[in-house]
Amino acid sequence: MDKEERKIINQGQEDEMEIYGYNLSRWKLAIVSLGVICTGGFLLLLLYWMPEWRVKATCVRAAIKDCEVVLLRTTDEFKMWFCAKIRILSLETHPVSSPKSMSNKLSNGHAVCLIENPTEDNRHGIRKYSQAESQQIRYFTHHSVKYFWNDTIHNFDFLKGLDEGVSCTSIYEKHSAGLTKGMHAYRKLLYGVNEIAVKVPSVFKLLIKEVLNPFYIFQLFSVILWSTDEYYYYALAIVVMSIVSIVSSLYSIRKQYVMLHDMVATHSTVRVSVCRVNEEIEEIFSTDLVPGDVMVIPLNGTIMPCDAVLINGTCIVNESMLTGESVPVTKTNLPNPSVDVKGIGDELYNPETHKRHTLFCGTTVIQTRFYTGELVKAIVVRTGFSTSKGQLVRSILYPKPTDFKLYRDAYLFLLCLVAVAGIGFIYTIINSILNEVQVGVIIIESLDIITITVPPALPAAMTAGIVYAQRRLKKIGIFCISPQRINICGQLNLVCFDKTGTLTEDGLDLWGIQRVENARFLSPEENVCNEMLVKSQFVACLATCHSLTKIEGVLSGDPLDLKMFEAIGWILEEATEEETALHNRIMPTVVRPPKQLLPESTPAGNQEMELFELPAIYEIGIVRQFPFSSALQRMSVVARVLGDKKMDAYMKGAPEVIASLCKPETVPVDFQNVLEDFTKQGFRVIALAHRKLESKLTWHKVQNISRDAIENNMDFMGLIIMQNKLKQETPAVLEDLHKANIRTVMVTGDNMLTAVSVARDCGMILPQDKVIIAEALPPKDGKVAKINWHYADSLTQCSHPSAIASEAIPVKLVHDSLEDLQMTRYHFAMNGKSFSVILEHFQDLVPKLMLHGTVFARMAPDQKTQLIEALQNVDYFVGMCGDGANDCGALKRAHGGISLSELEASVASPFTSKTPSISCVPNLIREGRAALITSFCVFKFMALYSIIQYFSVTLLYSILSNLGDFQFLFIDLAIILVVVFTMSLNPAWKELVAQRPPSGLISGALLFSVLSQIIICIGFQSLGFFWVKQQPWYEVWHPKSDACNTTGSLLWNSSHLDNETELDEHNIQNYENTTVFFISSFQYLIVAIAFSKGKPFRQPCYKNYFFVFSVIFLYVFILFIMLYPVASVDQVLQIVCVPYQWRVTMLIIVLVNAFVSITVEESVDRWGKCCLPWALGCGKKIPKAKYMYLAQELLVDPEWPPKPQTTTEAKGLVKENGSCQIITIT
């Protein structure tokens, strides 16, 4: 039973959860109902907020297999609880419900093996998911995903489509025929409707959800309490504030829902044609599509309503929705292993690995190509929320909570305030009982203390700074969809940059070419567009080996391909759809040089020449394309020159890869050196290769041939050298970040040496710094995994270790400041493959490499995300800046992700910059720091406000008095709200400084600052309160009291006498009240000024004109009514008249208070950091951040950094905590 009770679903994935089963219990339900009635509904609210308590209070534990309710808990650091109701899907109602037709429907819960033949007998398949013979399937829905009970694994599992566990062969053999109508209807029952439903909740639903927030419930409680105590005005003010807050919150939440709804609604319902088993074509709504349907892609294109794999024809797709790149991508049909000349073996289909053959949901098919009248077909592999777009929408609908120390500390702080309120609550009750006060009054006054201590305006005050920061960011072109992250950006101490399009210009310029003849490099040539080369294989390769296409008459495609094609000046012509349909073997795309480049026809005099002369028309047709694959790092085409019998294969890609696929005798001996020279200078190098194909390869055979059969045994033709210029602002921005002690890291898909060179050019790696390349090799032939360490500048002398001078080994610089540890003079560089090996086999080296890893080259999108996680694991606050192309995962995972692409991919990123340059990074960090400091200021101020008011009320309770309604109103509205909303307006400081703001509220200096101000304020309030009683004119105030000798001016007195009798019952008018009111009013303004920090993170507060004006106005007003009483104001604020000398005394108390407060705050600021730890006897602290602690350790580690030409091996094949040893190879 116990094993049955707790299981894991989505194991090893991001949304892994524990699952517990429960059944509803009637007696528990009855007890809870009684509790709800007794607590006036409060218990119901508590259970609404806490799903775990709700389930445990009303249900009993049960086996997961038979339970009615499941309780889920995430296994990440947040441990969030959710509950879901088990529902039953009945299959009996469906006509196709015999076990035969459901054969192996939901095979093993890991892969859905969808068998097409309804007569195939596999009676056990359905029972894995359904209960015994009853044909009922139990399931629950969580975060828009359905989880079905699977009998095989005795657990719930979600339904997968054809994207897992299905081989490429079976896609062609079993799935390409289409589904029968019965099969389709059955699947539709299981998979449900194919839509990404973002329901925009009704305003009423959102309102209820918002109003049931604990904070608003507390406000409601406060308002009811104040109303019973006749504090109507303040109650009304809070109600108005809450309504404004709720309305603005509802507006922004609903606006986000509507935006998201509109974004997914574009393809929600379109009519699509699907092929059925008997080759008939049926038109259905896209919402009826299920995995296994064969969809016909229309000629004029469409927006994809699902994820589908292409099995016939070619499509040109705009994937900007997913990748952020508006460059059209060519998608070809999935290679069919069974008809390939050289089979790939039975490879499993995976949408990620086969993304060049997969059409993703939400992407736009611009046009399709088909041959010999065949339809362009694709098999649906995923529908609804399982699609790539569905997963993106789910991540937006159900985001992971942002864990930030500030917010955790804020809750702790509120708890402290609640504890203080508890003390006041008990004190009030005891004091009132001793003074024999009525029970009703005791209850109201004691509860009132709680509402005073925990200020209802706190959340509004806290978000003010963030809202202002968001507005300022918008002005400089940075848009934010997750405002809470602005504060976190203030903490960033490491920023990862993508290279292409981020640090460097987006496009590449052709610098030149270096051809190879007879396995020798010729000298570099600048101009490719000349008559000499026009008919060379080199130019033919440039003309054909690309994925360019004409869209509405304009050439478009990969910018790199465009640059190369423009450089040769050729013309590209595509066959029209009519031609493609008519002719059997029409060449889909033809390229030819412009007439002026072709040599003139030679005179007839030279008979010999004429024999060899090519026809006047020189055209090359592109027969088959193998699109660029980042996994293979190459692309190739099969082409035929008009009139030639044999076809040609051309290939281009990463030089190392191309060279390995060429005949060794055609690759120059100095290939490695030449390549290295170019890459070290920061050039992007692409290699070209060619070979003549056998004449037996017909056009039709080529259409089905595998890549591997073409891409081998090639002749190496030479290199194209592209220049990727740094963006103008890059070096200056990186220098600013370095000055501010913010580490910079490069994460790119480009070649390692190019990346290192760019890192040196832009100042990421300084000229004197050493670069250590970690080349990790996975275990092979029984040998363990190992890392070879090379020093980048000495790579060329690898064969002569003695040539490496002793100074090549980096120096460890010992620094006093831990922050400077990052400045040690060595950097690690590695590529994606090495990074994966290190993560898997060298776990203990990962943190060390993270500390000095600066260049990560050839990184795949998921590796970028893993890198961000690895950096976060050593306590870095990581920012990521990319152009959105393949950085979506990393942008989402980072603490602050900034996308430089304005396309819809930026939905994944919390921040999007309108200007496509990295200058937005320091701007964002500056604004983040300003917002963070503002949050601290506001928090400290609100804390002081609570404590000052709490103490005022506690003092007055001791004489059974209180502050008047209008006094509360004046303090809370005129002083507090005005100050809070204007003190948040300080703009960010002009430049980034090396110092970083604290990350949490619970830090020594901050707590000391708050505590010292509390003591000062309490001291001066108490002084005023007790000193007034010592005055010779003091008496217990009564309506006839006349401390000011105002009997002469009867006007003042008579205006008071009308209301005296009714006011007296609250005992508000007395000398103590007036004294406490004036002193505390000034104290709020004093702490506001003391806490309004300017430099180094915000502009000084005198530049915040609204704040300065508000504070001066309030000072003048309070000073005026204190020194020169105005009868009408005194009457409203229920202030009594005190002698002039006491007014002057109060002014002196206030001035001394101001002097002490501001002096203490300045001292804490200036000496707090160095003196507090010393005063508390801490001595040398162990740094809290793991990376700082690690840096301290590495300073004394003689084995680190690794010496040149050494190898680190993993210890044995068995993982022993990933430990490793260093072996020196001589």
Automatic annotation (TrEMBL):
One of its GO terms (cellular component) is early endosome membrane. It catalyses: putrescine(out) + ATP + H2O = putrescine(in) + ADP + phosphate + H(+). It is an enzyme of class 7 (translocase). GO terms for biological process: intracellular calcium ion homeostasis. Residues 272-396 form the P-type ATPase A domain. Residues 176-226 form the Cation-transporting P-type ATPase N-terminal domain. Its EC number is 7.6.2.16. Residues 13-150 form the P5B-type ATPase N-terminal domain. The chain crosses the membrane at residues 27-49, 232-253, 410-430, 450-469, 936-960, 966-989, 1001-1028, 1074-1092, 1104-1128, 1140-1160. Its main location: membrane. It is found in: Early endosome membrane; Late endosome membrane; Recycling endosome membrane. Keywords: ATP-binding, Endosome, Magnesium, Membrane, Metal-binding, Nucleotide-binding, Phosphoprotein, Translocase, Transmembrane, Transmembrane helix. InterPro entries: ATPase_P-typ_cation-transptr_N (IPR004014), ATPase_P-typ_cyto_dom_N (IPR023299), ATPase_P-typ_P_site (IPR018303), ATPase_P-typ_TM_dom_sf (IPR023298), ATPase_P-typ_transduc_dom_A_sf (IPR008250), ATPase_P-type_domA (IPR059000), HAD-like_sf (IPR036412), HAD_sf (IPR023214). NCBIfam families: ATPase_P-type (TIGR01494), P-ATPase-V (TIGR01657). ATP-driven pump involved in endocytosis-dependent polyamine transport. Uses ATP as an energy source to transfer polyamine precursor putrescine from the endosomal compartment to the cytosol. Belongs to the cation transport ATPase (P-type) (TC 3.A.3) family. Type V subfamily. This is Polyamine-transporting ATPase 13A3.
